[in-house]
Amino acid sequence: RLKANCSSVDHTTFFFISFFFYILCILYTLPVKSYFNVLAVVLRTNNESPWTDEFDKIELSCLIESISTLNPRIEWKKIKNEGPSYVYFDKKVSGDLENRAVIREPATLVITNATRSDTAKYRCEVTAPDDQKSFDEIVIDLTVRVKPVMPKCSVPKSVPVGKSAELSCLEEEGFPKSQYQWFKNKEEIPDDPKSSSKFLNSSYTLNADSGTLNFIAVRKEDAGEYHCRAKNDAGYAECPAQTMEVYDIDIVGIILGVLVVVVVLLCITVGICCAYKKGYFSGQKQAGNNYKVPSKGDGVDYVRTDDEGDFRHKSSFVI
């Protein structure tokens, strides 16, 4: 009987020990995350950095992986440099997204008509009072791309050979910031002239960020039609083509022109000198004042009349 009792105790002990290890194995194989999910609200998103083109639809996903509270409080905030502002509060869309966004259950924010001002960071906040971890949040960085508008291009109409020239291109509406390409006669100008046989002898620098094309020394071959393209991830826009002419400087003509001017000035100077020597200018001055006042005699006074220019004697005249 004692042997039987011992055998019964051994079987019972073995059973409890086996069951205990079985429970441990189950708990060990369970993910730690699943255990905590039962006690906490946990959020996740499908895309932390979504993007869309202007006027298109975009979803900012805020998914609740686990929660115990039946009616959690859900809020969305827009975060910019000046601070956060509500776009969804008390179950209503407000602020910048009013009439342009809706909430898709449980907490995803859907913008139906995105604009460039919507580019910002957005924070989804969920508060669950009945959970041990009652609060969680995720931040989503939204980018709304804007297609460039037609850039303003400046191309000089004519440039002399050997002189420098600058072509400029500017567009300020696109987002992200536009990059620039220049074309000559509808063919793209490479950043490095040595990379193309057609532009191998050209001397220029091209800045794709600022849109400037600078010729260090223009050649005759640089003449042609130029236009610029502004582009970003949303699209591109081009300005109309403008013609740049390159002309030679006529050095011989310039020298001849200078000589002619010098000869003309020399002739005028010689003529004036000759006129002075012959008295032409001095004769004209004396013609208007050629009368000489007669000297007074002893005891005689003369008075000149205004109408005749002669003299009449005063009463003191002595014969």
UniProtKB/TrEMBL annotation:
<dbReference type="GO" id="GO:0042803">
    <property type="term" value="F:protein homodimerization activity"/>
</dbReference>
<dbReference type="InterPro" id="IPR013783">
    <property type="entry name" value="Ig-like_fold"/>
</dbReference>
<dbReference type="GO" id="GO:0046982">
    <property type="term" value="F:protein heterodimerization activity"/>
</dbReference>
<comment type="similarity">
    <text>Belongs to the immunoglobulin superfamily.</text>
</comment>
<dbReference type="GO" id="GO:0098636">
    <property type="term" value="C:protein complex involved in cell adhesion"/>
</dbReference>
<keyword id="KW-0732">Signal</keyword>
<keyword id="KW-0393">Immunoglobulin domain</keyword>
<dbReference type="GO" id="GO:0098632">
    <property type="term" value="F:cell-cell adhesion mediator activity"/>
</dbReference>
<dbReference type="GO" id="GO:0005886">
    <property type="term" value="C:plasma membrane"/>
</dbReference>
<dbReference type="InterPro" id="IPR042974">
    <property type="entry name" value="JAM-C"/>
</dbReference>
<keyword id="KW-0796">Tight junction</keyword>
<protein>
    <recommendedName>
        <fullName>Ig-like domain-containing protein</fullName>
    </recommendedName>
</protein>
<dbReference type="InterPro" id="IPR003598">
    <property type="entry name" value="Ig_sub2"/>
</dbReference>
<feature type="domain" description="Ig-like">
    <location>
        <begin position="151"/>
        <end position="245"/>
    </location>
</feature>
<keyword id="KW-0965">Cell junction</keyword>
<feature type="domain" description="Ig-like">
    <location>
        <begin position="31"/>
        <end position="136"/>
    </location>
</feature>
<keyword id="KW-0472">Membrane</keyword>
<dbReference type="GO" id="GO:0016477">
    <property type="term" value="P:cell migration"/>
</dbReference>
<dbReference type="InterPro" id="IPR003599">
    <property type="entry name" value="Ig_sub"/>
</dbReference>
<dbReference type="GO" id="GO:0044291">
    <property type="term" value="C:cell-cell contact zone"/>
</dbReference>
<keyword id="KW-1133">Transmembrane helix</keyword>
<dbReference type="Pfam" id="PF13927">
    <property type="entry name" value="Ig_3"/>
</dbReference>
<keyword id="KW-1003">Cell membrane</keyword>
<dbReference type="GO" id="GO:0005923">
    <property type="term" value="C:bicellular tight junction"/>
</dbReference>
<keyword id="KW-1015">Disulfide bond</keyword>
<dbReference type="InterPro" id="IPR007110">
    <property type="entry name" value="Ig-like_dom"/>
</dbReference>
<dbReference type="InterPro" id="IPR036179">
    <property type="entry name" value="Ig-like_dom_sf"/>
</dbReference>
<keyword id="KW-0812">Transmembrane</keyword>
<dbReference type="GO" id="GO:0005178">
    <property type="term" value="F:integrin binding"/>
</dbReference>
